Amino acid sequence: MAIASVTGQERAKAQIDAWLTTDRLPHAILITGPLGTGKRQLALELAKAINCQTPGSDACDQCGSCRKTDSLNHPNLHLLLPLPTGSRGSDAETMATLRETALDQFHGQAAAATRTGTNISKDSIRLLQKEMSFAPTEAPHRVGLILQAEAMLPAGSNSLLKILEEPPGQSIFLLVSDAPDQLLPTILSRCQRLPLRPLTVSEHRARLEASGTDGERADLAARLAASGRIRAEDVIGGETFDELRELVRRFISAGIQGTDQDYWQILEDLGGRPDRQQIEGFLQLCSAYLRDLFLVQQQQLAAVANVDEMEALQGWAQALQPARVELVAQVLDQAYDSLSRNVNPQLLLADLWYQLQRARAA
Ligand SMILES: [Zn+2]
Fold this sequence. Notes:
The chain is an alpha/beta fold. It has helices spanning 10-21, 39-51, 64-70, 91-107, 110-113, 122-133, 154-165, 185-188, 201-210, 216-226, 232-237, 239-257, 260-269, 276-297, 310-319, 322-339, 345-358, and strands spanning 28-32, 77-80, 142-146, 171-177, 192-195. The site of zinc ion has 9 residues, from helix 3.
């Protein structure tokens, strides 16, 4: 892997190449873009290229520096991201947990990556600030890699801002965020933006094939990923995804044709008191199904994501008033937004259920 191996994103890659070949890398780069655009991968490849020992403007993937960066073991690479809740400890322990959590995000199951907490603590930021202030030892630069940068709380953001205002020599910060509007404007103004665009279905498919996944599963994953909000890796991941998808399928089917009894059963199968992350996954899949319902109603069958559900989709589409489907989709979008404001997840589901029933054709 190297920067060149990142799927799509030709513009961003050309920009990076221009920075590296002219030795004019900004001190702080903010990589933005929706879910599944390859932000984290690009950030890691850029971190490798920055300190690669082989001359050239991309990572060689072979030298000691590239290998250490890949395994997040490089002494001049420093990580910042939300830690799993309840994992506080000494500085050394925190650094070990940061590395493990990041390894999960880069090389592990995407499902594991969603288990992190929601905030980047002030302590972690203070630790990064300290580490970045030393001169680099093994490589030309110290690289601070900040994942889910929007998770920094204002108090912590201010300490980061101090370093960004007067960056220590040879330090480069790479921030990654899919919600850059949640960052402090003062931080934004210190960063050079590198926006990534959503990948197409065929780009997702090519990416999955490159990592050894193909066939029907890859096609479904590529289509769902391109429809937004769902990670292709979660679809590939298998069992957990299949179970959740089956529940969502039952929820929609019963919302259109079933009774309240079905609703309570589905809630129970969701674990009785589903938490925020479960509901988030549930809503993401609901949203993919609703988008498909829309497409079926408009006869745009080629664009449907849940290709293996065409028959069910056509049945549902007939049982719903077209104008009402749009309303359900709106309620779903609002539900998704409310999740980040700590609205009771079960209330959101109940509301969605009610809207689906109202959408039934008379
Ligand atoms: Zn190298």
